[in-house]
Give the backbone structure.
Amino acid sequence: MERDENMFDIDTYAREAAEHRHYLHAHPEPSFEEQGTQQYITDCLHGLGLNPSPIAGTGVTATITGTQGPANDKVLLLRADIDALRLTEETGLPFASQNNGVMHACGHDGHTGTLLAVAHWLVDHRDQFGGTVKLLFQPAEELSPGGAEPCVKEGVLKNPDVTFVFGMHLWNTFEFGKVGLRAGPLLAEADRFELTVTGKGTHAAAPHLGADPIVAAAQIVTALQTIVSRETNPLESRVVTIGTIEGGSAFNIIPQSVHMTGTLRALSREDAELGAASLRRIVSHTAEALGTTAAIDYEFGYPPVINSCESVAFLRPILQQLVGESNVVEPEISMGGEDFAYYLQQVPGAFVFLGTRNVAKGLTAPHHNPKFTFDEDIFPIAVSIFVAVVRRYLS
């Protein structure tokens, strides 16, 4: 990473980011239950002389105004997500989760620690930027409908009006220090659905006297895969996954009903709507053909994350200067979801990945895995990226 003498001692702030991360990792809280996390963030920001405010229940927002040059009406929003996952940790870290059954298995502790350190840098160096930085510590990214949409509804992009939004995800899929920057779709729309197939229960030895919802459910699971294999352009992307199936109580009883949940992913709302229509048709007709009925509850989730070409063009030279041209790469589109999309629907901006995978250190566990952790040597780069975006955009 190239050093900018105007950034002063980034390593000091990077160490601070790690300290914040350790506390947050040890005290994880799931979506919309981040009261302790909210208090910790609020106390840290008060300690910097800022005046933070709650948002979306358990989130926090604050603003910092620079003093460089004449008055500047640009407003840059920096976002970090703060929630953890309901997962039992198996990392063996000295700062492992003290909240049984909950852990930071996606790097949100690193995101929050980074942004708190960046807030400190901004307070210490107001003369290095003009305009306004709005900090957003957002709750509930992991739980659809999530925290971004209520943040928008509660005015996080207003008063003052945000003119650019930037977010970054620590990414164990990428080699350490690589930055993933892509124009256009980056992450998919993430919809969810529930299906209840109802038949007629009977003795397992007399299936002709009932209508078997298990057989119907099995046929539905198979038939739904044709949405991808036969109704989606091979050059485009959709995913249909059944995640749970529940039904039956004994080996010798055909049950009355079977319940299933799943997700449909697409790279545009239009494709998601077409997929949802196909799902309804396939589920209803397959159930009917087998003498059962199906109730469908479909929920459109986060929209796709789409980076504007202009925003990517603005960020590319900044990132290349920091990590080297060869380390700024175009990532493959991920069918994962991210509610950062709601901000990008309203204002220009971009979302990037920062690689944290380190094979030599054995830090390779994927996100949402009980052994997930990341290389904390990434913090100087993470802090520098946020600082560089602030200084370039608001100078």
The two ends are 22 Å apart (CA to CA). Residues 189-299 form a domain with the Alpha-Beta Plaits fold (CATH 3.30.70.360).
